[in-house]
Amino acid sequence: MSAILSLTALLITGPQPVPVKVDGYRHTLVLLSNGELIGWGRPDMGQLGPIAAIPIGYYGSKGIVHIKLPKKAKDIAAGYETSVAVLEDGTVMTWGVDTANFMGGATLPKGNAGSEVPLPLPGLDHVVKVAAFGSTFLAVKDNGDVYRWGSQSPFGDGRVPTKIPGLENIVDVSVKSGCMALDKSGHVFTWGGMDWTGMLGRLDNPDGVGMVKGLDNVKSIAAGNSMCMAAKKDGTVWTWGSNFQAQLGTGKRTEQAVRGGMSNDIRVQPKQVPGIKNAVAVSSSSGGFGYALLSNGTVKGWGNGQLGQMTSRSNGGYFESPTTINLANVKDVWGLGMNGYALKSDGSFWVWGDNFQGGFPLAKVTTIPTRISLK
Questions:
Q1: Rg (CA), the chain
Q2: pLDDT tens digits for range 292-320
Q3: How confident is the model at residue 277 (pLDDT cuts 50, 70, 90)?
Q4: How much helix, strand and coil, in percent to the nearest 5, is found in the chain?
């Protein structure tokens, strides 16, 4: 009888929504499969919506915040204190602080103080993807063009979205210390990063867009802390850039970032990460670590693990070679700040690592994956 009741309830309510994208650092945004948007963390600049309606803990929200949008969302991104959502009709909404043009020319009620309520970002339509980090915001349109706004760059002052020259047929973008783009042919392009780290895949033209040489047939990209990652269609993972946090997965690390020239720990040319096979996606954090999701549902991680990001401990806190994350049947994985997040094939959602948000979703730093209830 109970089984019949459970089936009836499922037919009435339908499948429960699950995370399809997680982004952020000071505040975290989670896009659900039904187009709804939730979040938690620092709400002080309106990046989670109206501040007065959010119960505040020591550092951030006491729990999940439901963010109201005029329509369902199909993609999201979180800047330092600003949030962005792509609605199902291809328009873009933004809210939070606007100190450095973070909101891309949206009409604001209180000047650069921004808005606690999502506002339309003018000049952009037919958008399919967005990415953000700090003061850099990117949008990909359905025709493959890429637009940028936020802080000043060689492509404009950032006040309004500006098309980036030299990019065509782009299907995905990623941004951390620098920017990456993937085109439909499987080629990777970089720009805007710290060229001395090697993360651009070249030493010339640091301000312009350039294709990363020696890399093709790529299906997943991830920009990280002074480095870049790419998973190819053959299941291999490739990295390049700085290795001062062991974020290249080479089996070693340098003690500090190297400036003013080349060294064995600054890699301009992409090279394959040893020990990784059958990768389907990669994710890299500004905290100096990365994950590779394998086709069998396991996750490999490497780099900075000082706050439990690798679900285990190591001498010195750095994992110089890929290690297996203690979580099985993973469908998607995200590395954000000093935390790991994962969606399992059963629809459950998990987190581990730092408790930066002051009590939610983690009460303390932990190496043990902890399930998050989205109710």
A1: 20
A2: 999 999 999 999 999 999 999 887 899 99
A3: very high
A4: 5, 45, 50
Alpha carbons 63 and 43: distance in angstroms, whole number = 11
The type of residue at 132 is A
Smallest CA-to-CA distance from 301 within 215, 312, 271 is with 312
- Is the distance from CB of 145 to CB of 184 less than 8 angstroms? no
Instruction: Tell me the pLDDT tens digit for each residue of 127-180.
Output: 999 999 999 999 999 999 999 999 888 888 888 899 999 999 999 999 999 999
- Alpha-carbon distance of 330 to 302, in angstroms, equals 17
Q: 290 with 302: CB under 8 angstroms?
A: yes
Alpha carbons 124 and 343: distance in angstroms, whole number: 31
Query: Has this prediction a pTM greater than 0.85?
Result: yes
d(CA 357, CA 278): 34
Residues 227 and 239: beta-carbon distance below 8 Å: yes
Rounded to an integer, what distance in angstroms lies between the CA atom of residue 303 and that of residue 317? Answer: 9
| Triad 332, 336, 341: Cα angle to 5° | 35
Rounded-to-integer distance, Cα 106 and Cα 161, Å: 11
